[in-house]
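Section 4.2 – Deliverable D4.2 (structural model, holo form)

The reporting period included a commitment to supply a predicted holo structure for the target in complex with 5-O-phosphono-beta-D-ribofuranosylamine. Inputs used:
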Amino acid sequence: MTQDKLKAAVLISGTGSNLKALINAISSGDLELDIVKVISNRGHAPGLAHAKSAAIPVSVISQADFPDRQSHDAAIAEVLLQDQAELIILAGYMRILGEEFTHKFRGQIINLHPSLLPLYKGLDTYRRVLEAGDVETGASIHFVTAGLDSGPVISQIRIPVLPDDDTASLSARLGPQEHKLVVATVGLFCKRQIQYEQDEVSYLGQVIDRPLLLKDDGRFV
Ligand code: GRF
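Output (structure tokens):
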């Protein structure tokens, strides 16, 4: 029996290259996902063009139009409920979602972050990696809970930091790897293989004690 396609909403604020990677994977038949809505908090987010050219409905919900975070979050929640989004993918969504929102959608929101969490939560991750002299960095996808970049980590991809790297070269090399990670991880959700269980990640019915690591051959270990 074939499963219904997972319905997802993607929240963006900027370039939307990860959104584009998801759209490409859907078009090439690699991802059985239905992106029911792209939501941006910025009307001029370049990523909105990717949604429009793929005929995905878009909502711009700007914080400038609301008196506080709670009412802004509530407007986003209303759209998500109307669209019956089962998975909420934060892909470069640069605004913190409040506790009420993260509680309401607990286990349904995932975020892509450019570091090996729990290292380097927050902004400016490449600079901090270089300043620390780390020899490796990467990207993580985690369930979103109330704390910033703090929810249980589902998956990661790793890259080496090279001696000549600067923030631009690191971000240029990590970008395509993030795209692979988001497509592969959302693929696990599409197959209903990942669940959120009492602040832990379960994969194929088993709670995992470390994030799934995406290897070059496209498999998780
Ligand atoms: C990515 O680096 C992601 O890790 C971070 O924001 C960036 C989004 O890039 N959360 P894009 O808008 O998908 O191109």
